[in-house]
Amino acid sequence: MKSRLLRKITKSQKYQILTEIKRSQGLSVSELCDRMNLSYMGVKQHCVALEKDGYLDTWRRPKGMGRPEKAYRLTELAQEFFPTEYTNFTLEILNSITQVYGEAAPEKILYQIYQNQNAEVRLKVTGTNLEEKARSLAALRESEGYMSEYYFNPDTQQHQIIEYNSPVLAIADRYKIMHRLEQNMFESVLSVPVSRNAERISGLYKCTFTCLT
Predict the structure, then answer these.
(1) Tens of pLDDT along 4-42?
(2) What domains does the chain contain, in order, with CATH numbers?
(3) Could you say which of 49, 83, 125, 143 is the most buried, measured as most Cβ atoms within 10 Å of its Cβ?
(4) 57 bridge partner residues
(5) Apex CA 73: angle with CA 72 and CA 75, to 5°?
(6) Which of 186, 49, 172, 56 is closest to 117 using CA atoms?
(7) Average pLDDT score, the chain
(8) Digits of tens for pLDDT over the chain (213 positions)?
(9) pTM for the whole thing?
(10) How many angstroms separate the CA atoms of 129 and 134, rounded?
(11) Whole-number Cα distances in Å, 64 to 29, 67, 212
């Protein structure tokens, strides 16, 4: 029953709403209308239904002037619509490795995995300058399910890659070394120092990689 519901939603405007909200820190109905070119009532009905099903919640978002506006954001339950990389199976393997080879073994394996991945990514990323490389890396990560996009911050004059999903988030929560290894990979591929800043609000995730040049 649940699998049929998931398949049905992923082919509908409801899934488009979930995806738009996923690529943000929360959106109002009006903002969703602008992004999706749909009627206010149509979007509102979908949001109410998704909230009832447990995939969205709401909060009052402060505005510069006037009363706070109602905005929607994803719940943890909504994460099942977005790519993961066999999380439970991978965690089970790493836990078994710990039992057989000791506490340090999973980190050694993860280190080697990222070393191999680093070499592969360097071959795939193209560009003759930092912006071109950052755009190429963002496109590659987007294809891998990270919901990644390139952004140039006009205030700081810095190149950034912003990601709204992590297929390996649950694994990285268990093995914190993955955050550092991922950051190291960005630095190696882009050939500049890179900072990593992750934010989580309800079911929303945003990770910003900033080139420190």
Answers:
(1) 544 555 458 999 999 999 999 899 999 999 999 999 999
(2) 2-81 (1.10.10.10), 87-211 (3.30.1380)
(3) 125
(4) 73
(5) 130
(6) 186
(7) 91
(8) 444 544 555 458 999 999 999 999 899 999 999 999 999 999 999 999 999 999 999 988 887 777 888 999 999 999 888 877 667 888 899 999 999 999 999 999 999 999 999 999 999 999 999 999 999 999 999 999 999 999 999 999 999 999 999 999 989 999 999 999 999 999 999 999 999 999 998 888 999 999 998
(9) 0.83
(10) 9
(11) 18, 9, 30
The DSSP letter of residue 27 is B
pLDDT score at 81: 87
Going 84 to 72 to 28 to 32, the CA torsion angle's sign is positive
Residue type, 136: S
Distance CA 87, CA 168 (A): 7
Paired tokens of 41: 């009532």
Question: Would you call 87 exposed, middle or buried from its count of C-beta atoms within 10 A (0-12, 13-18, 19+)?
Answer: middle
Phi, psi of 207 (to 5 degrees): -125, 125
Q: State both tokens at 180.
A: 């550092």
Supply the DSSP string of 98-135, one letter for each residue: HHHH-TTHHHHHHHHHHHHHHHHHHHH---SSHHHHHH
CA–CA separation, 33 vs 29, rounded Å? Answer: 6
